[in-house]
C-alpha cells in the first residue's frame, strides 16, 4: 500500500496541512495538543460537512465516547448535562452539534472556528474516531499521515535543540577567544578577523573547508554551512566549541588545536552514527 506524501504549508497560527487521498486536512496546536479539522475530514464523504458531523454526533456510541473522553481529560466537564444527552441520543428528535455540545457540557474536545480558515476541529483522539466512522480505510490514511507529521516535528525539535546548544557553546567559545587571543586596543576589523579565524578552525575540523570555501562552492545558498548541517554535525560542533574554548585557555597553538579537534570530530561522528537512537532519528 502506497501512502501519499505529507504536504506542509504555512497558514494562520502555524496551521499544518495533511494531504490524504487528494483531500487537504488542517491541523493546529491548541494548549500543546493537536486538533484536526473534522470539516475537512467530512469533505471526503460530502460537501455538506456540518450535516455529516451532526449525524455522527447523534449516535449514542458517539455521545458515550465524547463523554468518556471529556471525563478523562476535562476537570470542568459537566456530567449531568452529558447524562441528559446520553439518554436522548439515538431518538428521532435528538440533534447535536459541536457548538451545542461545547456550550452545554463545557467540553474541550471540540473547537469551532469562524472565518476563512474556520470550521470544526477536534482533538486528535476524537478526530480519528470520526474518520473511522467516515471510512475505516480513510482513517488509516489519516493516522499514517499524522504519524509522518509527528516524525518530522520530532526531527525538527532535535535539530533545533542541537542548534541552540551550538549557539550557547559558541558564546563560550568567543569568550575564550576574547579573553586569551585578542590583545588590547585592536581595531574592530582585526578582532573580527580573529573570531573568523577561530570559527574556521572548527569549520575545517568538522566540515573540512573554511566558511569562504563553502560560500564559493555554494553561491546560490543563503546563510552559512552550519545552517545546512545535520543533527549529528550540530551535536559534534557544540562539543568542539567547548573543547576549543578549553584548548585556547590552555594556550595550545592553533595548528595543534586544529589537529586535536579534527581527531575528536572523526571519533565523535563515528560513535554517534553507531548509536541506534540516532539511526532511528534519521529514518
What does this structure look like?
This protein is an alpha+beta fold and 283 residues long. The protein has 2 domains: 123 residues, no CATH class; 131 residues, no CATH class. The chain contains 12 helices and 5 strands. The two termini are 19 Å apart.
Write the SSE topology.
Layout: E1 16-20, E2 23-30, E3 33-37, H1 38-42, H2 49-58, H3 60-73, H4 79-88, H5 98-105, E4 110-113, E5 119-123, H6 124-134, H7 136-180, H8 188-207, H9 211-217, H10 231-249, H11 254-273, H12 276-282
Antiparallel strand pairs: 1-2, 2-3, 3-5, 4-5
List descriptors.
5-stranded antiparallel beta sheet, 283 residues, alpha+beta
Order of helices and strands: EEEHHHHHEEHHHHHHH
The helix fraction, in percent, is 55-70%
Alpha plus pi helix count: 12
Mean pLDDT: 79
Number of beta-strand segments: 5
What class would the helix/strand composition place it in? alpha+beta
The strand order across the widest sheet is 1-2-3-5-4
Unreliable stretches, pLDDT < 50, 5 or more residues? 1-13, 279-283
Q: What would you call the shape?
A: elongated
Radius of gyration: 27 Å
Strand fraction equals 5-15%
What's the story with the biggest beta sheet?
Answer: 5 strands, antiparallel
When the domains are counted, the total is 2
| End-to-end distance | 19 Å
